[in-house]
Specification:
The complex is a heterodimer. By secondary structure, chain A is mostly helical. Chain A has helices spanning 27-43, 49-62, 65-77, 79-87, 89-95, 129-132, 137-140, 142-147, 152-158, 195-201, 204-208, 216-221; strands spanning 105-110, 115-120, 168-173, 178-183. Chain B has 5 helices and no strands. The chains are: A mainly alpha, B mainly alpha.
Chain lengths: 222, 108
């Protein structure tokens, strides 16, 4: 998707602008603080470093948007499952053994030509970890959180997401207890595709509602 | 509690900056902070609303200028101290020890 604006070259890895002023705590201090806190908790027997490694591995390698993508592909190809997913996402996700690790309730919102749903957590960073893994930095950043509720169409445009003027846009503010995932529209030209092929088309951003799933030909040339 | 974290609808917070192919964690310390927060709380010291409240208590300027996992490490430290799991003295001593060690390593 070449329409997506790239981060400026002088941004750091967090998408935070370089040279924007003083930091209360420079990274070197943070590094020492993290090591100190970990060492202290391990010494006291309150934290097992092996358990930390298991958790890190899970979120870096096993839990991510591919889980949500398989849920979407299933919903696109199984109308009964889709009906159950939209009616009670908690139960439907359990059918697929998708865990809700922070024991939150889930609601899945279907995007249609009539309604386009977008997800945010204005207060912090609530996100459907079980289906999408950990959120990208922009999702957790004050600029997205502040703007998407005020000028969602403009924000969607910046993400390269074309929503027709006659389509209603609904922005959903997540909480710790209730989190959302978008069921994006199935693109045209995917009629003969297998569930596996369909899942490969589904992006993280489409399940947040900040983009649409591209038709296969667009996806292949993007 | 209102505050700068409650930024829905606020103007002037700048452009949305996205990074293509962003890694799950940008630095190893972010990885350790994430896991430390979750594993430490296997002992149920706090609930998720409480941990967010500690982030909301950060100084407003610091909140806006620091990154996500910096919020986590500061709030986790404050929670563990306020709940009596560790003391400020213990944290300070450990930080001093690691700072000294790091200084030595840099001199080599």
């Amino acid at each position: 998707m070449s329409a997506h604006p790239r981060a400026h070259a002088d941004d750091d890895e967090q998408g935070r602008p370089a040279n924007h002023g003083h930091h209360h705590a420079p990274p070197e201090d943070i590094l020492v603080r993290v090591r100190a806190l970990e060492a202290l908790l391990v010494e006291k027997g309150l934290v097992d470093p092996a358990a930390m490694d298991v958790l890190i591995d899970a979120y870096e390698h096993r839990i991510g948007p591919h889980i949500g993508a398989s849920v979407v592909a299933r919903a696109w190809t199984d109308p009964d499952f889709k009906a159950r997913l939209l009616k009670d996402a908690n139960l439907a996700l359990e059918e697929l053994d998708v865990s809700r690790l922070q024991s939150e309730d889930m609601i899945v919102l279907e995007n249609t030509p009539e309604v386009h749903h977008v997800i945010v957590c204005t207060l912090c960073s609530c996100y459907p970890w079980g289906v999408l893994g950990l959120p990208p930095n922009w999702y957790k950043s004050p600029p997205y959180r502040s703007r998407v509720v005020r000028e969602p169409r403009k924000v969607l445009q910046e993400f390269g997401c074309d929503v027709a003027p006659e389509t209603e846009v609904r922005v959903w503010d997540s909480t710790a207890e209730l989190r959302y995932m978008v069921l994006p529209e199935r693109p045209a030209g995917t009629e003969g595709m297998t569930r596996h092929e369909l899942a490969a088309l589904v992006t993280r951003d489409s399940m947040l509602g900040v983009s649409k799933v591209a038709a296969p030909i667009e996806a292949a040339t993007a | 509690m209102n505050g700068v974290h409650d930024c829905g609808g606020m103007d002037g917070l700048g452009p949305i900056r996205r990074v293509s192919n962003e890694p799950v964690f940008a630095h190893d310390w972010e990885r350790r902070t994430f896991a430390l927060m979750l594993v430490a709380n296997a002992n149920s010291y706090w609930n998720i609303d409480e941990s967010r409240h500690f982030i909301e208590r950060l100084d407003a300027v610091h909140y806006l200028q620091s990154t996500y996992y910096e919020h986590w490490i500061h709030s986790m430290e404050a929670m563990l101290i306020e709940k009596g799991v560790i003391t400020q003295q213990e944290v300070d001593a450990k930080i001093a020890a690691f700072s000294a060690k790091q200084g030595t390593q840099q001199c080599r």
